[in-house]
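Possible regression after last week's pipeline update?

I re-ran a chain I had predicted before the update to compare outputs. Posting the input and the new output here so someone can diff against the archived version. Not blocking, just want to make sure nothing changed silently.
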Amino acid sequence: MTQTTAPTPAYRDLHRLMSLMSGDEKHDPAATSTLDALWVLYDRVLRVSPQTVDAPGRDRFLLSKGHGPMAYYAVLAAHGFFGEELLAGFGSYDSPLGHHPDRLLVPGAEIGSGSLGHGLPLAVGTALGLRAQGLTGPRVWVLTGDAELDEGSNHEAIAYAAPAGLDQLHTVVIDNASASYGRPGGIAGRFATAGWSVASVDGRDHEELYAAFTAPHPGQPRAVVARVAPKH
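New output (post-update):
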């Protein structure tokens, strides 16, 4: 599969790109809830490009919220990781763009995801692996949903990351009020209690997202809770 050099990406193109994909409408809210956070990350924060997807010094982005990946695919296409002509085949038998991303098929994807609760533990392991290799520059980013934080694997990852001093680790939680179980103090309080640096922002406000994503957090992992309207 050849990589494509895209024109300067524009946020206004994303809804058109997403409209090229059909067949998974039940996950439209899951996809659109991530759209703005993904855009700000890939457009202004992540140090990765189509030319550096295999570079040791790249930032790693792990999409844990892998069900409904249409926004993710649209953002990747807008930034030239693959041509937008692939979007129309989304979910078809011979398309690399499945209903759950496959890291072996999707250029730029670091993990296969969609089975919830795996991304944050994998991100912890990735940060530990980078540390073991002496790679202190690359950052690890993982995007999760609020509901998947009910998974026990995430509880263990949250509890472990701060005592381990994993300040290369960044978690973006899309909070669209879909979780079945609440937590005392809310999502931000849960991370803060475990020793993380935390911010809670409007998940549609690009400047709030950017400021939260780029705030210093020496010695601590970072969690950004991005609030969006329920089911959107």
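Follow-up from reviewer: compared with the archived run. The first helix runs from residue 14 to 19. Marking as no regression found.
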